[in-house]
């Protein structure tokens, strides 16, 4: 985005804080991780064929070496580049591959457009068909 610079934000203790977006206006805009998760969830649920977000087990997350998702979404943000894992339930009778590809495309587009962040990957895991 022209005139906008993003930066990682850290607390004095070194813990990660909400992502900061600096603009030419005075001050900083901070976007919480929960906002990113909400964008991902809302976008995925708008895709025809996606019924709901799914939960996954701790074991599945450990096998994939990923953080435990909350409400079907796990996010990783490094240097203001987002990677996300989505766990979804799709409708019976839909083309699962097409639904998954549509989710990937729309989620990446939404993150880029709404918060101006670069998206490294959008991984979609179909957990069930209902």
From TrEMBL:
It comes from the Bacteria. InterPro entries: Asp23 (IPR005531). Pfam families: Asp23. PANTHER family: ASP23_GLS24 FAMILY ENVELOPE STRESS RESPONSE PROTEIN, HYPOTHETICAL CYTOSOLIC PROTEIN-RELATED. Belongs to the asp23 family. This is Asp23/Gls24 family envelope stress response protein.
């Amino acid at each position: 985005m022209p005139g906008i610079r993003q930066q990682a934000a850290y607390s004095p203790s070194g813990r990660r804080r909400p992502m900061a977006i600096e603009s030419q206006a005075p001050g900083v805009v901070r976007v919480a991780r929960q906002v990113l998760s909400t964008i991902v969830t809302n976008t995925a649920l708008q895709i025809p064929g996606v019924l709901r977000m799914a939960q996954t087990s701790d074991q599945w997350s450990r096998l994939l070496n990923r953080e435990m998702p909350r409400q079907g979404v796990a996010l990783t943000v490094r240097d203001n580049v987002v990677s996300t894992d989505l766990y979804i339930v799709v409708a019976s009778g839909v083309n699962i591959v097409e639904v998954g590809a549509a989710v990937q495309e729309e989620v990446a587009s939404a993150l880029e457009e709404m918060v101006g962040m670069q998206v490294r990957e959008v991984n979609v895991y179909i957990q069930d068909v209902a």
